[in-house]
Amino acid sequence: MANELLGAAALLWAAAAIIALIGVGGIVARALLVAGGLAGIAAALVCLPKGTETLMLPTTLGEGPVLFRLSADALWLMGFGLAPAVLACALSTPSTRGEYGWLFGAAASLLGALGVFGLQDGASLLIAWEVMSFGGALMILSERLAAAAARSVLFMLGLLEVGAVALILAVVLMAVPTGSLSFGAFAGAAATQGAGWEIGIGILFLVGFGAKLGILPFYEWFPAAYGSGSGASGAIMSGVVLNAAFFGLARALVGWLPAATPGIGIVVVAVGTVSAVLTILYAFQQEDWRCLLSFSSAENASIAVATLGACIMFRADGQMRLAGLAWTVALIHLAGHALAKGALFLAADGVYRSTRSYAISHTHLLARSAWPFGLGALFAAMSLAAMPPQAGFVSEWYVFQTIFQGFHLSTLGDRLTLAIAGAGLALTAAVAFATFVKVFGIGLLGRTARDTRPMSVGITRSVALLGLCVIAFAAGMPVWLAGLDPAAGGLFGSHVPLDMRVGWVLVPGTGAPIAPDRSFAFISPSLLVIAMPLLSLLPILLLALSRRFAVRRAPVWYGGLPQDPERASTTALTFSNALRTFYAFIYRPTLTTTRETNGQPYFIRRLVFSHDVAPIFGPYLFSPLVRFVRLLAEKFSHLQSGHLNFYLALIGALLVLILALTLI
């Protein structure tokens, strides 16, 4: 049944790609994409927690057959990632100029992600990876929402190809000891190699998959690329595509390197933690919905990567239960993130359709739109800000509970690594809270006198549905955890997910199941969903009592001028300026003011104010590399002399070289 559903999903997406390529029947292509996504979600629901049977595809690649199988963790990440993708495909891009190209790119992204989740050999994985990257680039280019979209996409593809080269090297090095590209042989190959070889392979996989996850320095392509596309593209790329990249990394580091040393774990934790801190600091400064949410996606992926690094450290130290806990927590975190981030990306498209801008500014859209939209957006923002009782609160609570278990590790260096990581993730959580207060408070609650259209029915229902999924995921966590138990048992030899619950109460799951009152920490999002609305009755009662007394209202002093609430209110810049000043050594902010005059210095026509924050890796890593490549291109350009005799001489020299190598 499951393989039939997955086969139907692949065929439907392929049919949608063909229709989009022809350029006729956009509504049909959208319907096929949605139907394929629903089939994928149904397959995940049917097959969890066991996974699918191994399927031999009717094709060959090289000398062996192409096998396909979805494990429980693949189904978990794919199912939750497809939920926002289905709604994004149903709504499609708000751009009216490149819908067919966008539909083709969406189909390619979904097909590539399905391949990354399920294909079982290195060659087919690399092909699926490239198809997934190509689909994302095509979505952004087709929309033409930004003047510099081509440059942004080229930068994105350049960094992704760096990751692809790292993946090719890692797969080849894994295949050499056994002479096979099958993933089933990779674990055996790793067991015969030394610790240095494993660390090198692990770093290659971290670079390869991390290029799409947005770990440093690769996160610098996120704001330009996401900011050149729509929220629908962002919902797909930060959901199912991001989850596929993390699944590939987790499968490589946990499944293919079973005897990984703590050294690679320390590297992964350090890279993930630093990436999380930097990306959320830069997210806080953004004034575009898509750029801010893209940095936030990199931040959440980095948190999951840091937790995966803790899993590797615990396993190398023999702490299998703690390793299983960290692995489970990373999957929980990305599942909740996909739902919440998809809701806000679609809300960003709603802002654009209403105001023709993605700027985070006062729109008063919350008051002018239907209440289900506000409720869904609020739940999503609360989750990404890690506020109870949402999914983000549950997953980040579990992240800290996992990192704090570092005192169980046997060496001082390992314990210090997780202690410092805990401090970095705490800073990340604090800045993330402020970031989404800014998004929701200014971007949706802010009042304006401008005329803006309310959210469309499609956006309202989609955001509301995803917001309800966020809180349903949190409240039903004791039930959802069962979906990961067999996979955790197979990898770590213990049923940690089932030990993370006691009835409707969640516990860290570090030992045998115990009563909540004997655990040093426990929460129950299921009960909080019931208790928090009851607690809201108290302010409602106070509000009702206050109406019996006269309330004195006075206008705000506005410098003796007529009051302008919009100009006097907090903007995105002023909200984030304090943190920009405090962390100026990271941001290196720039402020410029230009005066435009009519030729007379005392008569100013207009003042132009601009501000920005400087990237870290751009001027110190990417720019020198670009200059080096251009220098090489200039030197090698002399080979294109246009003289036939010179080209014949080069061909002759190559023939002589080939003959010499053959004789040797």
TrEMBL record:
PANTHER family the record matches: FORMATE HYDROGENLYASE SUBUNIT 3-RELATED (PTHR42682:SF3), HYDROGENASE-4 COMPONENT F (PTHR42682)
Membrane topology, from the record: Multi-pass membrane protein
Organism of origin: Ollibium composti
Record domain NADH:quinone oxidoreductase/Mrp antiporter transmembrane: where: 124-406
Annotated Pfam families: Proton_antipo_M (PF00361)
Primary localization class, coarse: membrane
Protein name (database record): Hydrogenase 4 subunit B
Keywords from the UniProt entry: Cell membrane, Membrane, Oxidoreductase, Transmembrane, Transmembrane helix
Localization (cell): Cell membrane; Membrane
Keyword Phosphoprotein carried by entry: no
Stretches that traverse the bilayer: 6-24, 31-51, 74-93, 100-117, 123-141, 153-176, 196-219, 231-257, 263-284, 291-316, 322-348, 369-387, 416-441, 462-482, 520-545, 644-663
